[in-house]
Automatic annotation (TrEMBL):
SUPFAM superfamilies: FKBP-like. Keywords: Isomerase, Rotamase. Residues 208-312 form the PPIase FKBP-type domain. Its EC number is 5.2.1.8. It is an enzyme of class 5 (isomerase). The keyword Isomerase applies. GO terms for molecular function: peptidyl-prolyl cis-trans isomerase activity. This is peptidylprolyl isomerase. Belongs to the FKBP-type PPIase family. It comes from Pedobacter suwonensis. It catalyses: [protein]-peptidylproline (omega=180) = [protein]-peptidylproline (omega=0).
Length: 322
């Protein structure tokens, strides 16, 4: 298990709640877990980091807002002038390359200066950031134009390394998911792997149809807490369990144009009729490919569980959600 994830789990288990935190700027408190003694981050530097942001809600003492480990995507952070005393930038300036720490920041100040509303149902007014600094590109005395070029080359090199790794490990990710879940998959000529749990009726959707589906999309890797790594779902219960529930989303079967879905999902849905249920594992070539999209990294295999609730022909009205 990676050292950064061990630190993450320690923080999530409540070990960061001890009284050994130091006082930083403003309302910030912090605890440094590891210090490599390298030059500290300065304003203008460019940083690659992994981190977890949690808040304490009425239902969960460690409700995760952001987790780069679960996303398998480090963050790249330009160190700008602090927006307020005790913000994350001021905390990062206490660290150097290879260092790790946890910072507790005031959510009122974050909301005031960032314009981003606080999460609902908070029990405390504190956000915790558990950070591991992976790499630092120091600006030094470089003119802005030269440093911008260096930043671009740095990011491109790191992004290429991430993509190369994802491409290499993709088959192993799929095999591990199948083994861990004890699945007996059928493989289509395209490379789509699937299990049909219920075939449904004899009707089949065509590319011009809109399909009404209940679905859950997830990554093959589990979250650090052992839960399903869900990135989208039409099921409220699953969304809450996965920590992605939003009050602004209607959790009902969704009508989606079949022809606009990823190729692997199209193929899977066309194997079942109304009332059918299918699990699909999409290799990236049938999903979001070498470019990725949104929370999905390049060369990322995806898992979809779909129940086909209805097929709407062109020019037919969508049924009202019950």
């Amino acid at each position: 298990m990676k050292k950064g994830i061990i630190i993450l789990l320690a923080a999530a288990s409540g070990l960061t709640a001890c009284n050994k935190f130091e006082k930083g700027e403003g309302d910030m408190t912090y605890k440094i877990y590891q210090s490599e003694g390298k030059p500290k981050i300065q304003e203008g530097d460019y940083v690659k980091l992994n981190g977890v942001q949690t808040v304490e809600t009425n239902n969960n003492p460690d409700s995760v807002m952001v987790n780069t480990y679960d996303n398998e995507r480090p963050a790249f952070f330009a160190i700008s002038k602090s927006m307020f005393k005790g913000d994350l930038a001021s905390g990062l300036k206490l660290l150097g390359e290879g260092d790790s720490a946890v910072f507790k920041l005031n959510l009122d100040s974050m909301e005031k200066y960032s314009g981003q509303p606080k999460p609902k149902g908070l029990k405390s007014n504190i956000a915790s950031f558990t950070i591991k600094i992976e790499k630092v590109l120091h600006k030094g005395k470089d003119p802005d134009s030269i440093f911008e070029a260096k930043k671009r080359l740095f990011f491109e090199a790191e992004y290429k390394a991430l993509n190369d790794k994802n491409k290499t490990v993709e088959p192993a990710k799929i095999a591990k998911y199948i083994e861990e879940n004890n699945l007996k998959m059928t493989t289509a000529p395209s490379g789509l792997q699937y299990v049909i749990y219920a075939p449904g009726n004899s009707e089949r959707a065509t590319l011009t149809d809109t399909v009404l589906i209940d679905y859950t999309g997830q990554f093959t890797n589990k979250k650090s807490n052992g839960g399903l790594n869900v990135f989208d779902t039409s099921n409220a219960k699953i969304a809450k369990e996965a920590g992605i529930f939003s009050e602004n989303v209607q959790y009902v079967p969704r009508g989606l144009p079949l022809g606009q879905l990823p190729q692997g999902v199209i193929q899977g849905i066309q194997m079942i009729g109304v009332g059918g249920k299918i699990k699909m594992i999409l290799p990236s070539k049938l999903g979001f490919g070498e470019s990725g999209g949104g929370p999905i990294n390049p060369f990322t295999p995806l898992v979809f569980d779909v129940e086909l609730k209805g097929i709407i022909k062109p020019n037919a009205a969508l049924p009202l959600a019950k």
